[in-house]
Amino acid sequence: MTPPVVIGKDLRKTFRARGNGGEVRALDGVSIEVRPGELTALVGPDGAGKTTLIRLMAGLLAADGGTLRVLDIDPAVEPQRVQDRIGYMPQRFGLYEDLSVQENLDLYADLHGVTAAERSQRYPQLMQMTDLGRFTGRLAGRLSGGMKQKLGLACTLVRSPELLLLDEPTVGVDPLSRRELWVIVQHLVREQGLTVLTSTSYLDEAEKAARVLVLHAGKALAQSEPAGVTRVAAGRSLALDPGSGNNARNLQARLLDDPEVIDAVPDGGLVRVVRAGDASAGPARNSIAGLTALPVEPRFEDGFMVLLRGTAAHEAGVDIRLQRPLPAAEAGPVVQVRDLIKRFGDFTAVNDVSFEVRRGEIFGLLGPNGAGKTTTFRMLCGLLPPSGGTLKVAGVDVRSAGAAARARLGYVAQKFSLYGSLTVGENLEFFASAYGLRGGIRRQRIDWAIRQFDLEQHEHTASGELPGGFKQRLAMGAALLHEPHILFLDEPTSGADPLARRAFWRRITALAEQGVTVIVTTHFMQEAEYCDHIAIMDGGRVLAQGSPAEIRRLAHPAEGRQASMEDAFIAVVEAARARAGS
Amino acid sequence: MESLLRIIALTRKELLAVLKDNRARNALLLPPILQCLLFGYAATYDLNHVPYAVLDRSHSTESQQLLSRFDGTGLFERVASLRTQREVSDYVDDRRALLAIEIPDDFGRRLEAGGRADVQIIADGRNSNTAGTALGYAQSVVEGFNVDWRADHGQPGPPVTVEARAWYNPNLMTRWSMIPGLIGTLTMIQTLMLTAMSVAREREQGTFDQLLVTPFRPAEIMAGKALPSMLVGIIQATGVLLVAQLWFRIPFQGSFLTLYAGLVLFVLAAVGVGLVVSALCYTMQQAMLFSFILIMPFALLSGLTTPISNMPQSLQYFTFVNPLRYAIDIAQRVYLEGAGPGVLMPDLWPLAAMAAVTLTAASWMFKHRLQ
Amino acid sequence: MKAQGAWRPKLRRILALVKKETRQMIRDPATIAVGIVLPVILILLFGFGLSLDVSNVPLAVVLEDSSAPAENLLAAFELSPYLHPQVVYSLQTADRLVMTGSVDGILTIPSDFGRRFGAGHATVQLLVHGSDANRARIIESYVDGAVGAWSARQSAEDGTTVAGGPVSIQSRLWFNSANDSHYFLVPGLIVLVMTLIGAFLTAMVVAREWERGTFEALFVTPVRSGEILVGKTVPYFGLGVLGLLLCVVSGRFLFHVPIVGSLVVLLGGSMLYVLVALGMGLLISSYFKNQLVASQLTMLATFMPALMLSGFLFDLRSMPAVIRAITYLLPARYYVSLLQTTFLAGDIWPVILPNAAVLAIMVALLGLASRAVTHKRLG
Asked: Topology of B50-152 in CATH?
């Protein structure tokens, strides 16, 4: 057998945290092997150490401890020799946005010394694979997120490297582009025998690898073929039917508090549960919380959650009861959008969009990159003037409405926009004042937010230095200080690990239950299951609208598989594009 | 009331963000003071060290007397006594001497005979301003010699003498005019950039959207951005003022009230310009470049380094919309002349007008360009 | 043979980087702003806006005497191209004119002027507004000169020989006989523009790659860090030379500044300085990796010194020892000296060679230093 391409033993890397002089242990004794001709996946939540590990291999960082050989070279000692032979696509592939697609490709071909003859053979292949052929003259900065990632991949593949390192190639990419990218990678491994190491936070992607390494907080929890991880949850996966008239997400919220339950997610109208306890001990119990549970085939995600729960403590219950309960329901929808249009020059970003959201509903806007959901969202919040159509939030147009109307809104921006140099406490104080909270109430609400979002030990940390998950919590805390009636959330879970995402949705569903109206955009199709209502957008139009169950029915699932929300999404978008193309 | 509280909250946040960050705080307060010290010493047209070479062909007591006067000033330093004309050009060409004094061989004889004599002075005109100043010094040395010579030899003095006195700056020190001028200049550079970038930073980091979704009104956001910059500007001006008085000991003649009234108006105008820039720019880089491109002509056409009256008429018109021009005038006149508000009216009202125009324009742009 | 084999891919990589950098440079609005708009603004300001040549000084003349000599003196003032007298009859009026800034000084011709002139020793009083010290001094010497010339003429007419002092100065201004301040402002302008293009632009360019994360992918290719530096240098060097030509041409033909020395020396010295400025920009931005910090620092560390501490406006010899010592560390100082000499005095090798040598050493040092701080490493 050929020796592994990468052998890492007991790798350690510590970073000094900026400001407070603390240390972050990015890698804490990780060992890894990458075998030739195989696809190896690094999976783990945000901050697990995936990027650090890949950068060590690329010779961009030197380890503090342990040994690492890449292509039988130590990359810390001879980085250039490694870099001459591998291909590397960083998480944010630094495309030169002011160069065209062709110019970016040429640059990397020149740097790698690809001859003209090789190019004439390689370029058509890459163009066909990435479907970028039509856009060679376009500036890279004008490409959509998914196309940028594909171009980044193409630049990395201008020649066949002996090892291909991909750092979260699909983060921030919509399901459609994500699937296309994976087809390319799998094709390369299968047809050309390429050795690939990729990191990902999408668990479904890990299942497609030959081997996976599960990383968490700088430690390897498992290294095996994906089935090995799935097996950890063997006999623990169950599906619960909430029963007619009951909401899957409310049941799920309740189940998460059950100490016997490791994980619960709404899935296709049912609730998928991973049970705690040793699978081999006794017969599988088939009732949880008084409901009949059907055993189901475990998924990779189930195994992953079991592994993760082994290290992380069960999160304390959330208490998100509003102190000032909302006034009784007014008649009619809270948010009303009719024939909404937005044009930028001769480009129509949002074309004739209409929907309604009722009080206490969670409304999800889904769509690929550039579908127009962020533009719609910004118009709803009054940040952009519409070019046509009507738009009413709580009965008024936010853009022309006074301060009082805006005081009823809460807004969490995509990047969790906080003042990075201010501490957590100072950020909260500022937003409390901005919303006109004063005196006792102000103190009370700030204390509430700090307690509710577990920010106690970070109260005096500059918010720019918070770990990603805590930034999201602080942004939520700041947006909820004034107990808004309507909450706008723009991709709130992007880049968050599965645990944080579950905690986030528990809070959101609790708020909705008390009558808060929530409008959310997301890339994670499973999260659409938490919504009462979703709208799928593409090319500025709403392609489909309805409850999750209604949308799911639009899918054409593969043989013998239940339709997932992702299948439905892809089916809807592809059908619409085919219609537009014909 | 609500509105006021929100503005205070925004101002407080803004100041916290600036002052908490060590680097930002240093960047705001250290450069003005350092630059003030540096320029106080460096930016002067006064000469205190004029290297000169002598070609004395006369070798007479009279020529010795004249030259010892040069050496006695402390300003002139004789770097060489030359013998040939060729050496003169060597010394001037390679900049060893700024002046070369050539005394003709009949110098002593002519003076003894009661007649007139010439000395020739060659100045290195590569910097003609410096050369002119040095020649001026030489002229006064020679004049001193003439007066004494006449007195010693019973000759009448010149028919007309000019008794010159300089108001407000009796020794005509460049520093005295430069440093009060710097109060405005240094303050403007920083306040304009700070204001322009503070909005751009919020846009870049996405916090601007967050602000717009809160109950803040555009005008309140503007006020909340303007106040902290003004405060920082006034503090910087005070820093420079303290350096001027405590370090350079330039006597302050006017009233602080007048000076600060003028400064507040000026800073308000500078902040207004900064806000207009920020309304036009989306990134910090743009904001920085744009303010830089504005600051350059503001500073060069302010009268600080070269007089406004020397400029061609068209550019003099431009200086009417240059807030710095007025600020420098106010600072210099209050500082050196003790000018009161009445005399300064022609400076004060344009600043007030500029503040009004820029702030109105900025608030209009904020309202109409919010995207 | 082998060495040649190693050089070819290197050359190809450098070429690819130069091509990329040039494209980016042309497409970036910031380059246009700093590389073209600012130099043009500076050329116009320096060429037309700034002048230290004082002329047409408005002066209030308080004429208290109506004798013939007094009227005669006034007429002499009116003829002077440098002075613009405005006759008033009371000191209060004159004071008011000074206060409102309409005149720069007051010349008083006292009531006994005619009588005392006849007796051989009259005085006039000059009060100048001292808030611009340089200008005030120039005005003083203008008035002095005008009075001296007038009395010399009077004496000559009267037949008395003692006009002026026994000793008079015949001054000659070498290299700038017309005493035109453009002659030294234009070389100074070139220094500023070269500094802007060289240091300010490159400081932003390298930092931008760090900020946008474009370096990470570039690093994991066969490209060497030295090649990245060369790739950055070449296009901006080209832009610098372009800016230089723009300035030289406008200096020569728009502002009529002579070029006494040889063009080769002028261009050669300027290219050295552009390399120094590029080196400083590269060094600062490779070290700080942040556009804002890098550009502000470049501003403080290169542009301001080039303006204030280079000897272009203010005489270096008159600065305190500490500041003078600092100026020896600044490349602008050597470049200003080299430029002023080449432009106005000619190819004077004792000035050109040492200055060029210092610049060359700086190029080498900065090259080594930028090389040392540019690792293909993150963190």
From this structure: abc type-2 transporter like fold (3.40.1710)
